[in-house]
Amino acid sequence: MKRFFTRVQYALQGWTAFFAKETHGQIQLIVAIIVVVAGCYFSISTTEWMLLLLCIGLVLALEMVNTAVEKLADRVHPDLHPQIGLVKDVAAGAVLWASVISVVIGLMIFIPYVKALL
Q: Based on C-alpha coordinates, what's the Rg of the chain?
């Protein structure tokens, strides 16, 4: 049990470092907070909450993995290298893909609420 809590502690240190030092992580956290506040304001359904939380979790998790890949790649090969560049681009592309799909899902959820408000 002690090993489990030690591993959780390491993971929480990763969260703390990510959100404290990574600009993209900070921006995405702010966007996530805005989305959660909007969800509370509009009293969205349980299903809509599940979709939004899944999107938030996916984008943040992929951004964390992207950051880890970039840091590791820079450490392994600090000079420009085409294959390292491709690895970093693919990891960033995964974040972009999840972000675009998340925006589309967010718009599908919130546009009807905003229309009803107006």
A: 17
